[in-house]
Amino acid sequence: MSLRIVVCVKHVPDATGDRRFADDHTTDREGVDGLLSELDEYGVEQALRIAEANEGAEVTVLTVGPDDAKDALRKALSMGADKAVHVNDEDIHGSDVVGTSAVLAKALEKAGFDLVIGGMASTDGSMGVLPALLAERLGVPQVTLLSEVSVEGGVVKGRRDGDAATELVEAALPAVVSVTDQSGEARYPSFKGIMAAKKKPVQSWDLDDLGIEADEVGLAGSWTAVESVAARPARTAGTVVKDEGEGGKSLAGFLADQKFI
To answer: What is the pTM (predicted TM-score) of this model?
Structure first.
């Protein structure tokens, strides 16, 4: 059987835009342009490299989100993924990472997989725990935060670079892995890839297709909640320290007042 790779990706607000929260304290995804999370591009890239090294392997990209989330799938397809799955249901709105992991896990079970790949975190929520939650729900090993990954003989192998040591880790398939932004620069979609992506299949599923009740996800089913939000304070002019013989003392005094020293 050929290797089935599924990459979990997310459509996120553009970090260069004016990001804000909606009235229900969820991220406003309508008032700003969105795109495929940059950190997820590394996951797509590693999936494609593994597929290129394993003849017959197939790469599926999977996302959960509203209609616009399909743009993230198209970007991944234009990079070279074979097909996509879009889970879209109004009742998913407001889900936290626990609810999102429940939806993704059911979708992964329905799609079928040997290897699940994710980025190290999303660029909007920055939780970084989704791969671990998926592995727990799916009952498979997790090998996370890899800067290098490969698959050979039914085993996924990788290198994890830490502050104090480098670890060489591996797990038998099926498994869940996540890769960091040090795993290799993501390729740019070619014109041929962009045109080909328009013809690649994109399946759409809702909660009924996955056998999930509405009260298990969304704001009602979330384990966490945002109680309040506030705009970032405007940047102040700052303090200018002029050196007229006492500059060192003035600077030291300023740092002490700010509790930096």
So the answer is: 0.84
